[in-house]
């Protein structure tokens, strides 16, 4: 095999760059749920509740963005398989200083959908940030409160 690159003084060969071959695996029903949190100013949370965000409803837009992102995971993460997703569902729980976001992805396939759920929830959180950032910036244009945290897989099932 030809050497195609170097990384930390270790050669990488052609084989190490391929996707995992799942052709011998059986198809089964797979589901994964990922969640994460975006921390916001209480005033921003109140503006979302009251429908006063200039760009529209962040949760509606984040739902669409999360669905699209989950469906495009294989285009974003090099070794992910293109999975025939059967559903993507997003939900939001608003508290006084944060929005907890959850993304559940299902598919009938040979490999799991954890990365798709993680991608969906992360893009949903980023979409919320984008839509409210004008309220979150301080006088210096910084985000002293706003942050995304706790992105993780909370449930994975197979079969």
What order do the helices and strands come in, and which of them pair?
Layout lengths: L2 E5 L2 E4 L14 E12 L2 H8 L8 H14 L1 H4 L8 E10 L3 E12 L4 H23 L10 E12 L1
Antiparallel strand pairs: 1-2, 3-5, 3-6, 4-5
Helix pairs in contact: 2-4
Brief description of this entry?
This protein is of the alpha+beta class and about 160 residues long. It contains four helices and six strands; from the N terminus they run βββαααββαβ.
Describe this entry's structure for a reader.
The chain is built from four helices and six strands, in the order E-E-E-H-H-H-E-E-H-E. It is an alpha+beta fold. The chain has one domain (29-158): Molybdopterin cofactor biosynthesis C (MoaC) domain (Alpha-Beta Plaits). It has a four-stranded antiparallel β-sheet, covered by helices on one side. Helix 2 (58-71) packs antiparallel against helix 4 (114-136). It is elongated. It starts with a strand and ends with a strand. 29% of the residues are buried. The mean pLDDT is 92.
